[in-house]
Sequence to fold (142 residues):
Amino acid sequence: MITICFVCTGNTCRSIMAERLFKQMLKERKISFIKVISRGLNSNKENISDYAKVVLKEYHANDRDRKAIKLGKVDNNTLYVTMTEYQKTKIKADRVISFKDIIGEDIADPYGMGIDQYRSCARQITKGLVQLLNKILIGVNR
Fold:
C-alpha cells in the first residue's frame, strides 16, 4: 500500500481538491493500492471552500463538506506532495515533493478568489496528478 498526503496551507482548497481528484482518478482506473489523504500546514478546521466543492462536482469527484485537517506528525512511509516549493521546506520527512517537481510550477492558492481561479487550479492539479500516477505505475511495474 502506498500512502500519499497532499499538503497546502489550509486544507480547504488545493490539497482537498488534489485528494479528491486523485481518488476519483484511482476509482476510474480501479487502482486500490494507493491510499490518499490531505492536510494543511495551518488548518483551523474551516470547511472546504464552496468553489472547491463546485469544481469537485464538475469533475465528478466527492464534493461533500469536510473540516480541514492540520498536518501533524509525519510518517516516513508516506509520500507528501505539496502545492508549493515553500511548503515542501516546512515538512521534515524522508519523502516530500512539490507540484513544481512534477509539472515545473507551484499551484497558486485560489482562496478568496473566483470560480475561474478554482477551475484553473483544478486543471493544473489534474495535470500533475496524471504525471504523478504515471510515475507511480511505472515504478510499481518495474
Summary: The CA atoms of residues 47 and 122 lie 18 Å apart. The longest strand covers residues 2-8.
